[in-house]
Amino acid sequence: MTRPDRRDAGQIRALHCVLGQLSRADGSAQFAAGDSSVLCGVYGPVDVRVYDEKLDRAHIEVKLRPATGLPNTKDKWTESVIRSTFEREILCHLHPRTLVQINVQVRQDDGAVEAAAINAATLALVDAGIPLRTMVAAATCAVLPGGAIVVDPTLEEAAGAQSVHTFAFGGDTAGGPLHVDSRGDFAMDEYNACYDICATTAERVLAFMRSAVEGKIAKEALLVGAS
Amino acid sequence: MVAEIGPSNVEAAFLLESLAKGIRVDGRGIYDYRRLKISCGPTHGMVEVHLRQTRVLARVSCEVTRPLPDRPTEGIVQFSAELSSMAAPGLESKTAQEVAITRMVERVIRQSRAVDTEALCILAGEKVWLVRLDIHFLDHGGNLIDAASIAAIAALKHFRRPDVTVDGEEAIIHDVRERNPVPLSIHHTPICVSFGFFGGELIVLDTNLLEEQTQVSNFTVTLNAHRELCALNKAGGIPLNPKQIQRCIQIALAKVDEINEKIQEALKACAA
Amino acid sequence: MADIKAVLPGDVMDTGAAARDGAVLRLGPGLVQADERTSAAAAGVLHSDGDLWWVAGNRRRYVAAEGEPVVGVVVARHGEGYRVDIGSAHDALLPLLAFEGATKRNKPSLAIGTVVYGRVVVANSFMDPEIECYNSHTGKSEGYGELAGGFMFKCTLGLARRLIGSTAPVLAALGSELPFEIAIGVNGRVWVHAEGPEKTVLAANAIRNSEYLDAKQCRQMVKELLAR
C-alpha cells in the first residue's frame, strides 16, 4: 500500500511551529503538520461579558474559522472539542471572573485539522502564559478500506477511509486520553490499534512542542544571564 | 478591559506634536509604507500579507454552480471579509469602522470588476464557476484595508481553477492532477492606498495602530497598474481640502507601482 | 541563588533535598500543588531562592499583584474614584484622594485619557485591583501621580521587569548619550520623556528594540539610532 505522498503507514508529516508572532494577541502559535496549518491566537485573562462571568473560575471561549467558506457545523463541533478539552486543563480557578479566548484560524486543511488545532491551542496558551495543568497533544489515525491503518492522514486519505480516529493526550499519555473522536465503521481491535499508534504519535508531538517552547525560554533566559 | 481604550492623552498629544515636525513615532517618513511582505502558497490562491504588525490572510476557492437567472453567462464572485476576534481584543461588536473596512475591500474587488466573470462561464444558463474569496484578518496593527486589498488581488492572481473542456452541451471538468489548473482572467489589479489626516496639513500614509486611533479623517485611493482611478473613499471624519486629495492621489500613484512590483516578485517566487 | 532549569506545564518539580528534610516550601508564580506533587503550570525557567520556588516566563498580559508599580490610563470617573486601565482583566480603582497632599477641598481632577503612575495596593483574584498615586505611609508622591508630556508605549512584562530591576543594559547605554526621564510599569507600559519628539522617539525605539540584545549590542544599537 503506497500512500499518495509516499509516506510509511506509521510516518507523520513534518511538524512545524512558530510562537508569538501576532502583535495584538497575548499569546499565539502557528502549528503545521505537512500542508495542514492552523494559527491560534489567545487573549487572557481578560474582561468577560456579564452573561458569561463565572464567580469562581475563568470562562473559556473558542472561536474557529475555516480556511474557506463560513463556519459550518463541523467547525462548531471542533470548537466545542477544543473548549471542553482545555476547560479541564486550564487552571480556571486561578483567574475567576475573567475570560480566556482561544481564536483558531485554519490556514490550510489537508487532513487531521482537529489535531493540529488542539496542538496549536496548547502552544498558544503556553505562549500567553495561561496556567495549564499539562500540555495537550493530539494525533489522528485512519483505517483504510482493507484494514490498513495510517497515521496523520491527508484530506484525501481521510475522505476514503472506513474510519478516522482522533485522540488527544496530556503529558502523561499512560494516564488515558483527554479527548477521543472516532467516526465511521470500525471494530474494537482497529480502535485499539489506532489508540496505541496515536498515543505514541502524541508523545512525539509533545517532544516537538517541548523543544519549540524550550527554544523560546532559552532565548529569553539568555538575557537574564547576559546582563 | 478587553476592548481597546483608545489612545491616552499623552500618546495622542505626542503623535500630533511629532507629526508637526515631520516625525513619525515608528521612525518612518510620513509617506512611507511599513515593511511589506507577501507570502504565497503552498496551495493555490493562498496569500498572507504582512505590513509590519498588520497581518491578513486571503484564500481563494471555487466550485461549480448555476448562474444567477439574470446573468446566465457570468460566473459569480463571492466575498467574505469579517474582522474576527483574533485580530484585536474585544472585537465583538460591529462598530462602524469595522463594517467600513469589510465593505471597502468588497467594493474594491467586486465593483471594480477586477475578475472577468464572463470567463467564468462553463455552459451558459447552466454551469458557471463560483469564485470565493475569504479574507481573514489575523493581526490588527493599523491599516487593514491596504493589507487586505494586496492580499485579495495577489490571491486571485495566484489562484488556479480546474481546466474545463466544453463539447457542445457537455462540459468536462478536468481533475487538477490530470491537467494543469488554469489562472483566473483578471482585468486589472486594483490596490488601495490609505491616508490618515490629523487636522491642518498633517497627513500620513499607512497609519499604524496608534495613528489610526488618533486620526480625525481617513481617505483611501484605489488605483490599478494602468494608473487608472478605481475608487475614492472618504467616509465621515473632518472635511478635507481638494488640494490635499490631489496630493494624496499623486503619492498613491507612485506607491501603487512599488506595490505591484512586490506582488509580481512574490508571485514569481512561488511559481514553482 | 538562581537555579536554572526550563520547565513546561505539567512537569513535576523535583524539589530534591528540601523535600526530604520535611521543610516547608513556598510556591511562587507558575507552580501548583496537587496531592503530593508540585508541578509547573507555566513555561519558563525554574528558580529557587532558599525555600521559595517559582517559574519565570515572559508574558504580555498583566495580572495585578500588590506593591507593584504600574502605568495606567484613566478611562472613567465615579463618585469614589477613577477607573484606570492597567492592562489587567479588570480596571483598577484609584481613589480621588490617593494623591500627595489631596484633601476633599483640594484634590487633582484628572481628565479621561490621563496617564498616571501608581502603585497597586489591592490585588487578588476576587476583587478589582486598586492603585494609589502616592506612598500612603509617607504621604509623599515619590514619583507617582500624573505623567504629562513625553510618550508611552507597551512592551512585554519580562522586558519591563528587567528595566525596573536595572538589569537591562539599554537604559545605561541611552543614559550615556542623552538625558531622559522614564517611568516603568511592570504591567508592560513604559513612559519616556526626552528633549523634543525626535529624542523621545529614539529613546522609545531603543528600548523597544533592546528585548533580545545584550549590553554590547545595546550600546551599538543606540549609537546607530543616534547616527541617523
Tell how many strands the DSSP assignment of chain A holds: 9
- Rg from Cα of chain A: 18 Å
What's the structural domain tally of chain B?
A: 1
Number of helices of chain B: 5
Assign a percent range to the helix content of chain A: 25-40%
- Indicate the mean pLDDT of chain B: 90
Report the biggest beta sheet of chain B as strand number plus sense, adding barrel if it closes.
6 strands, mixed
Poorly predicted parts of chain B: none
Beta-strand portion of chain B reads 25-35%
Question: SSE order of chain A in H/E notation?
Answer: EEEEHEHEEHEEH
Short description:
With 227 residues, chain A is an alpha+beta fold. Chain A has helices at 73-89, 113-128, 155-159, 188-226, and strands spanning 15-19, 27-33, 36-47, 59-65, 98-108, 137-143, 149-151, 163-169, 177-184.
Descriptors for this entry?
heterotrimer, A: alpha+beta, Ribosomal Protein S5, domain 2, five-stranded mixed sheet, four-stranded antiparallel sheet, 4 helices, 34% helix, globular, C: 228 residues, OB fold (Dihydrolipoamide Acetyltransferase, E2P), Ribosomal Protein S8, Chain: A, domain 1, six-stranded antiparallel sheet, four-stranded mixed sheet, 5 helices, 15 strands, 20% helix, flat
